[in-house]
């Protein structure tokens, strides 16, 4: 159980990504700091800042952000609009860093997180990011045609990929003509080829592929990727990609990166919105003891884990 947690909440201020200036909030900013432990839980109480200065840390030049928060990683809380602004800058900065260092940026997408990349298709990012150096993958995919409404590829293509000049050969979608087992095998073979060619880095610790950034979302039950609670695929420890034929929600057939691959990432951005996910967010961040563990509780990357939450998803953290 974490003994302390500081959570920042975006208010009415706004940040111009080019000027990095922050306007005056419409209402006094709020910061949240944990109270002493009561029983086995740490309860979080609100603290009002003093003259705009955070009582728990320095103010940062980010959209409406008052406090940077750390609970075994960074936890930041925004309105949905400010979440998209912050996520865009975070992704753009990582993109620049890895392209300078390695010549590529390997980013893994998940379903619902894609909608919060919308600011990347707007100035200044759309005109300044070296899109030809991006390599795009999926942490999970529904085994349906790529034109199907349930396809994560379609969601990403319609909302993001089609709006930026990423070369089609840098976008690694599934072969939707195959059954689930075949889809997973072919996708893993593709990843192994790219690791051998040093397009995807390899973890020196685990020898699994080490993606630069994995964007994860989470289900209300703590699901990440196609790793569902109490499902055998959560315990897969040797494969890079595996499949599910009996997912507890439709469509039943899916493929997913395995937990060891997810945890080998250089960076994971956990993008979670909606009050329906607040219980699982609290369980993961406050390290509540559950048995068996929720899949989201097993996410522990070699690099940085950063949470991007809206106020609904974070609501149990500051009650």
Report on the architecture of this protein.
- This protein has a single domain (77-304), classed as Rossmann fold.
- Helix content is 20%, strand content 21%.
- The chain has 6 helices and 14 strands.
- The chain has helices at residues 80-102, 125-128, 152-159, 180-196, 259-262, 278-285; strands at residues 6-9, 30-38, 41-48, 74-78, 105-109, 134-138, 140-142, 201-202, 209-210, 213-216, 241-244, 254-257, 267-272, 304-310.
- Strand 2 (30-38) and strand 3 (41-48) form a beta hairpin.
- Mean pLDDT is 82; it is low at 1-6 and 8-73.
Topology at a glance:
Elements (H helix, E strand, L loop, with lengths): L5 E4 L20 E9 L2 E8 L25 E5 L1 H23 L2 E5 L15 H4 L5 E5 L1 E3 L9 H8 L20 H17 L4 E2 L6 E2 L2 E4 L24 E4 L9 E4 L1 H4 L4 E6 L5 H8 L18 E7 L9
Parallel strand pairs: 1-4, 4-14, 5-6, 5-10, 10-13, 13-14
Antiparallel strand pairs: 1-2, 2-3, 7-12, 8-9, 11-12
Labels describing this entry:
9-stranded mixed sheet; 319 residues; Rossmann fold; alpha/beta; single chain; 14 strands; 3-stranded antiparallel sheet
Count of individual helical segments:
6
Q: Strand tally, please?
A: 14
Assembly type of the shown chains? Answer: single chain
The third-level CATH topology is: Rossmann fold
What portion of residues belong to β-strands? 15-25%
CATH class: Alpha Beta
* Main sheet attributes: strand count, strand direction, barrel closure: 9 strands, mixed
Radius of gyration: 20 Å
Structural class: alpha/beta
What's the pLDDT, averaged over the residues? Answer: 82
CATH architecture: 3-Layer(aba) Sandwich
- Give the neighbour order of strands across the main sheet: 3-2-1-4-14-13-10-5-6
Enumerate the spans where pLDDT stays under 50 for 5 or more consecutive residues: 1-6, 8-73
What is the total domain count? 1
Q: What is the straight-line distance between the termini?
A: 17 Å
Which outline best applies?
Answer: globular
In percent, how helical is the residue content? 10-25%
Task: Tell me the series of helices and strands, N- to C-terminal.
Answer: EEEEHEHEEHHEEEEEHEHE
């Amino acid at each position: 159980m974490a003994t302390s947690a500081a959570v920042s909440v975006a208010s009415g201020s706004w940040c111009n990504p080019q000027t990095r200036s922050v306007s005056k909030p419409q209402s006094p900013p709020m910061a949240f700091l944990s109270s002493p432990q009561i029983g086995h839980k740490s309860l979080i109480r609100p603290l009002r800042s003093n003259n705009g200065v955070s009582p728990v840390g320095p103010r940062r030049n980010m959209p409406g952000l008052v406090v940077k928060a750390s609970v075994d990683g960074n936890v930041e809380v925004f309105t949905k609009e400010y979440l998209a602004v912050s996520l865009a800058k975070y992704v753009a900065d990582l993109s620049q860093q890895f392209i300078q260092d390695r010549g590529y940026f390997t980013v893994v997408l998940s379903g619902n997180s894609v909608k919060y990349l919308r600011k990347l298709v707007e100035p200044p990012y759309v005109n300044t990011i070296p899109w030809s150096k991006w390599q795009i993958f999926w942490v999970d995919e529904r085994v349906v045609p790529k034109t199907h409404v349930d396809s994560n590829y379609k969601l990403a293509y319609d909302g993001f990929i089609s709006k930026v000049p990423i070369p089609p050969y840098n976008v690694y979608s599934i072969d939707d003509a195959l059954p689930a087992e075949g889809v997973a095998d072919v996708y893993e073979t593709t990843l192994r080829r790219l690791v051998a060619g040093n397009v995807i880095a390899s973890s020196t610790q685990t020898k699994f592929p080490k993606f630069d950034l994995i964007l994860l979302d989470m289900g209300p039950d703590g699901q990440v990727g196609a790793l569902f609670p109490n499902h055998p695929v959560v315990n897969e420890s040797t494969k890079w990609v595996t499949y599910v034929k009996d997912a507890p929600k439709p469509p039943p057939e899916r493929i997913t990166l395995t937990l060891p691959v997810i945890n080998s990432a250089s960076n994971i951005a956990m993008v979670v919105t909606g009050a329906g996910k607040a219980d699982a967010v609290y369980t993961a961040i406050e390290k509540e003891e559950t048995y068996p563990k929720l899949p989201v509780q097993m996410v522990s990357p070699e690099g940085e884990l950063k949470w991007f939450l809206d106020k609904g998803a974070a609501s149990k953290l500051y009650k």
